[in-house]
Design a protein that fits this description.
It is built from 24 helices and 26 strands. By secondary structure, it is α+β, with helices and mostly antiparallel strands. The structure holds 2-(butylsulfanyl)adenosine.
């Protein structure tokens, strides 16, 4: 071919762009392979020539040891959801009112809502610098090694005048065909099968070794920018998209510009709904954005989402299939949940072969037997569920709860007056152990920050931790020798276990995962008895004196502490140094909201349990529904019926910022 190194790089990148971005191959696979091999040979002989934009650099990175945290200069926000045309229209009608214009005068830009995960990619002087996940919107994880393998992501922007800084934001997803292929292979090789393309994409992006991502077909489509230092003065969002496409990115198919009338939203929605199944990628809705950037700035944001864009979500999809069996899964608190095994059926781009049945009462309510034809429903990332029996099977078999736990063979029992059946194996049941350990270490409980679900599962599968007490026996080398871990991260885990030894009695009680004893119950019990020995010695009658504790909870606590295995585990934990201040001695807090009832609704930036704890620490009771007795409703983004009810009843409403300003800072 007689091209020099730079020309060869440019040529291969041009072919890549044609193939992976434009879906328009310019050469045969053989010709491409030949050029690529020539490039590799040239680079092997002249390593000093290798540039960051060389196509060889996509898979050249070594596996990483841990995900580095990345702080986003410009927050990565989420979108409010609309579940009907009316809600969509109302969203922009509200924006129009704020702007004092008619909704019809708003220029709307619609984009398919790609069902993957949000990624941001930084370019410096036109060259790929690093990529990160959204994380909590403020801090994400560095996933450069995997994002570089995506061939529709340019390593160098296609422009002679690159911006000094450009942060491209968009969705990484797995096309439907690639997902089917991946799962077919996983089935053959007996490896992990993914539930849907989004999970497959997320699972791939979170791999330590970039070779795995390189072997899977991920794609990236941008939907906006973050930080930008360049010469363009964009006036419309759609100009930004055109600019990104000119730089070498893929264009989201089927984007439209129209005015914000009800009829226009209706037409657009109907059109997209019809197109949905024929698209090569999963979409879970349509994103509508106000195109004019100056208007976007005027409207700004509420909580975590912009007031100029909304995600119109597609409704659940339903199909009919046959119930071929029922398995019973054992959860953290020992509850046996029936899971429907279905004749595999394709719905919304995914093959579904399992669905939740909740409990035996639900099976009875549905009148369900094995062999029946059933209607199943799938909505976004929600686990599919059986909605109804469409036709009874000819040779239908009743669904029977097993007498013994399918995991540990302990007897299964049903508590009087409850829907749930439970394994009585307590902390010895393997199914309960791993989940109990995760619950114990979680942020809401002991808050062992560096001991996450994945690590627990790994340590559990290797037999290093079998019960919650074993957490305190973990040694540095137990972790440091695991794949993807090093001494430093192992030490971080041990440090966080140590730091979390100082806790509160109520937190410890909740962390034990005693059936029926949640956060609220634990607080009441700890406040009443004030010490662990007093709780351990309490009878059902004693426990019934505690506010809001009924017979079911009281019996559950007594059963738990009377079990010798549980006693041994609790004693081991205390001997390992877990301790708390006597709650009697906790400094008395001002309780300005004593006697008040508050309701939290919508999506808030602050985790819901933290907002609840904050309100409770101020003396308020947090209720689940709005009534005339409600003192105040804190409404986050996407607040719906509860907010409407509060407005109807004239109950005071605060947004999250007002709430925080009043009580947090
Ligand atoms: S715009 C300021 N456009 O949906 C908000 N998001 O539910 C920027 N998504 O986190 C998002 N397709 O990961 C936007 N065409 C699209 C999208 C899209 C998919 C995802 C994105 C976002 C999530 C919000």
């Amino acid at each position: 071919m007689n091209l020099n190194y730079e020309q060869l790089v440019e040529r291969i990148n041009l072919w890549n762009h044609a193939y992976y971005v434009l879906d328009n191959p310019l050469v045969s696979d053989a010709e491409y392979d030949l050029a690529f091999r020539e490039l590799l040979a040239l680079e092997a002989d002249n390593p000093e020539l290798v540039t960051p934009e060389s196509p060889s650099q996509r898979i050249g990175l070594a596996p990483i040891a841990e995900f580095k945290k990345v702080e986003h200069g410009v927050k990565m926000l989420s979108l409010a959801n609309a579940f009907s045309l009316q809600e969509t229209f109302d969203f922009f009608d509200k924006a129009a009112k704020e702007l004092d214009v008619s909704p019809e005068s708003l220029a709307i830009f619609s984009e398919p809502k790609l069902d993957g995960l949000a990624i941001t990619i930084h370019y410096q002087h036109g060259v790929f610098s690093y990529a990160a996940t959204r994380g909590d919107g403020q801090i994400g994880e560095d996933v450069t090694h995997n994002i570089k393998t995506i061939k529709s992501v340019p390593l160098k922007l296609d422009t002679d005048t690159p911006p000094e800084q450009l942060e491209v934001r968009g969705e990484v997803f797995m096309p439907k065909a690639a997902f089917e292929k991946l799962n077919r292979l996983a089935g053959e090789q007996n490896t992990k099968v993914f539930v849907n393309p989004r999970n497959a994409a997320a699972g791939t992006v979170r791999q330590m070794n970039p070779k795995i991502a390189a072997a899977r077909d991920l794609q990236f489509i941008p939907y906006g920018i973050g930080e930008y230092q360049g010469e363009h003065d964009f006036t419309r969002h759609s100009d930004i998209i055109d600019y990104l496409v000119s730089l070498g990115f893929r264009r989201n198919p089927h984007c439209y510009a129209f005015s914000g009338s009800f009829a226009a939203f209706t037409d657009n929605y109907q059109q997209m709904e019809q197109l949905r199944d024929s698209l090569p990628m999963e979409i879970d809705g349509i994103v509508y954005k106000i195109d004019d950037l100056a208007t976007q700035i005027v409207l700004g944001f509420i909580a975590r989402s912009p007031k100029w864009a909304v995600a119109r979500k597609f409704p659940a999809q339903q199909v009919t299939t046959q119930l071929i069996g029922v398995d019973f899964q054992v959860g953290r608190t020992g509850v046996l949940t029936p899971v429907a095994r279905l004749e595999p059926v394709f719905v919304g781009g995914v093959t579904v072969s399992n669905a939740t049945l909740h409990n035996m009462d639900e099976i009875e309510r549905l009148g369900l037997c094995i062999g029946d034809s059933v209607e199943i429903q799938r909505a976004g990332d929600v686990i599919p569920k059986v909605v109804k029996v469409v036709e009874q099977g000819e040779d239908r078999q009743p669904i029977i709860m097993p007498e013994d736990c399918p995991v540990c063979a302990s007897p299964v029992a049903r508590t009087e007056g409850q829907a749930a059946f439970r394994c009585t194996g307590g902390l010895i049941c393997a199914a309960q152990s791993a989940e109990r350990i995760e619950h114990y270490a979680s942020r809401k409980c002991m808050n062992i920050v560096n001991l996450g679900t994945k690590l627990i599962e790994l340590l559990y599968s290797k037999g290093i931790i079998n019960t919650i007490a074993d957490i305190y026996k973990i040694k540095l080398e137990d972790i440091a020798t695991l794949e993807g871990q090093g001494e430093k991260s192992a030490q971080n885990v041990l440090d966080s276990i140590e730091a979390a030894k100082t806790t509160k009695l109520s937190t410890f009680l909740a962390a034990l995962g005693i059936p029926e004893v949640g956060e609220g119950g634990s607080k009441n019990v700890a406040k009443y008895f004030k010490s662990l020995p007093a709780i351990q010695a309490a009878s059902v009658e004693d426990l019934l004196q505690v506010p809001d504790v009924g017979p079911v909870t009281a019996n559950s606590i007594v059963d738990f502490f009377h079990d010798a295995r549980n006693q041994a585990i609790v004693a081991d934990i205390i001997n390992a140094g877990v301790h708390w201040e006597d709650e009697q001695h906790e400094p008395a807090q001002a309780q300005p909201l004593a006697g008040q009832t508050w309701v939290l609704t919508g999506t808030m930036a602050m985790p819901r349990h933290e907002a609840k704890a904050l309100l409770e620490s101020l003396g308020a009771k947090v209720a689940g529904s709005v009534s005339k007795k409600t003192n105040c409703v804190v409404a986050g983004a996407e607040a719906g019926s509860k907010l409407a009810k509060a407005e109807e009843l004239g109950v005071k409403v605060m947004n999250e910022a007002e709430f925080l300003a009043a009580f947090r800072f």
